Amino acid sequence: MLNDPSAERAVLAGIFSYGENAYLEVSDIISESSFTIDSNVVIYKCLKHLCENNSEIDIASVYSVAEELELAAILHKKQEAQHLRAIIDFPVNFGNVRKFAGKIRKLEIARLLRKELGSAQDKLLEINGSESVGSILAVAEDTVFNFTNLLNDSDEAPSLIGDGLDDYIQELKENPIDQVGIPTGFPIYDQSIGGGLRRGTVNVIGARPKTGKTLLADNMGQYIASKGIPVLNMDTEMSKEDHFNRVLAMMTETEISDIETGKFGDNPDKESRVENAVNELKNTKLFYKTIAGKPFEDQMSIMKRWIVKEVGLNDDGTAKDCVIFYDYLKLMDTSGMTQDLKEYQVLGFMMTQLHNFAVKFKVPIVAFIQLNRDGITKESTDSASGSDRIIWLCSNFTIFKRKSDEEIAEDGPKNGNRKLVPLIARHGGGLYDNDYINCNMQGWCAKITEGKTRLELMNNKGDDDEGFVINEDHDYEEEIPFN
């Protein structure tokens, strides 16, 4: 089944009756493959040829084009000639032609999906039991998810860039927003990369080991989730309990050790703060998943399932507002490597898949990477470990690193111990050369706070009332409020 001869006849009759206008109404959603009756396929091909060549449409023209396209054998049969005559005489309203075209397009999609699912069944028969459960589920999931592109595929011709511009500007005027992307809680960073985490982008942050990548992910993730936006933390190294301890310590400014050991219960004030943070955290959509050792295909399936189950899809198949943190991009095992496929190539393919995923579902992804040893002294894209493709496909690339003793002395101890250095910003202005964003990492409570930029501090020397201060009790740097 999965066909509707009456709808097919109505579309063809509409083109016969209304000519090029009707053809242009349907040509962006159907093609000859949308028709299931052989003679209808031939008739549509002939009508398409006539409309695209600005020719008059009548029965003689259809036969002439059929001869030209070497398709006349079917139409010369008596039964098909009668079928063509019936189409010409079939009454149809112009306003309904596109509706009928949409119907046969949906039926075509159903037929194609049925065929793809059949192919998926064949792939399932090849499973030998050594595969992971995620890999087995991915056979069906990939078939469905990859197929959704058909819902929006079209062969629309190029349009003038000014088409629809008035409506676009009016929409912007009537619905102003504070910034284009999702805020991370680091406003200067957001501004430098183009207004926060934009849909369909991969935002890369690189750091040397033990610099605080995971703390940065936790700080940004908790802030975003606190605004009601679902966040998924894909972690390659730490346990869920580790994140419990860090996020609660950060939210309450309580020592991580007191959280881990339960000693916070000895102090009524700390106990109250932790209980309040627990209740708040339970009501946020902050999700965690360990992906240590999992094949990359399984990781992609986890993200897809999370979007469908927990986030939800818009009518066009894209995800509703959400953010994915991927901590961090690295080769999980050597199973994907051969003599001909090096580590940098595998990492490049992983970045390509992340980029394609972000674009397809219009999801912002924050991906962390390790910096190579050049990252100790250099602040350039050369320090990105793995693959040039990571830099090619990201929307922005930022280095997160420890400040040197000289930088701390120059900026002043009150202005933090870490820095963010945006190097590439496709949508934003970045920062001036030799500038960076001051940050302070309070390791004792897992909190990272954004301060001023280096150039702002240079232009406001003598402003001693702002910044960070040493906390004598903990011998760690602690933030005091900015004015």
Taking pLDDT < 50 over at least 5 consecutive residues as the criterion, the unreliable ranges are 469-483
Oligomeric description of these chains: single chain
Largest sheet: 9 strands, mixed
- Enumerate the strands of the largest sheet in spatial order, edge to edge or round the barrel: 3-2-4-5-1-6-7-8-9
Q: Tell me the Rg in angstroms.
A: 30 Å
Q: How much beta, percentage-wise?
A: 5-15%
Tell me, rounded to a whole number, the average pLDDT. 86
Distance between the termini: 70 Å
Helix/strand/pairing category: alpha/beta
Estimated helix fraction: 40-55%
Q: Using the alpha-carbon principal axes, give the shape.
A: elongated
Number of helices: 20
- Total beta-strand segments: 11
Describe the structure in your own words.
- Helices cover 48% and strands 13% of the residues.
- The protein is an alpha/beta fold.
- Strands 3-2-4-5-1-6-7-8-9 form a nine-stranded mixed β-sheet, with helices on both faces. A two-stranded antiparallel ribbon has the order 10-11.
- The N and C termini lie far apart (70 Å).
- The C terminus is likely disordered.
Please give a quick description of this structure.
By secondary structure, the chain is α/β, with parallel strands linked by helices. It has helices at 5-18, 20-26, 38-52, 59-68, 72-75, 78-89, 94-125, 133-147, 165-174, 187-192, 213-226, 240-252, 256-261, 268-282, 296-311, 343-361, 374-377, 388-393, 405-411, 454-458, and strands at residues 202-207, 231-235, 286-290, 323-327, 365-370, 396-402, 418-425, 437-442, 447-453, 468-471, 476-479. Strand 4, helix 16 and strand 5 form a beta-alpha-beta unit.
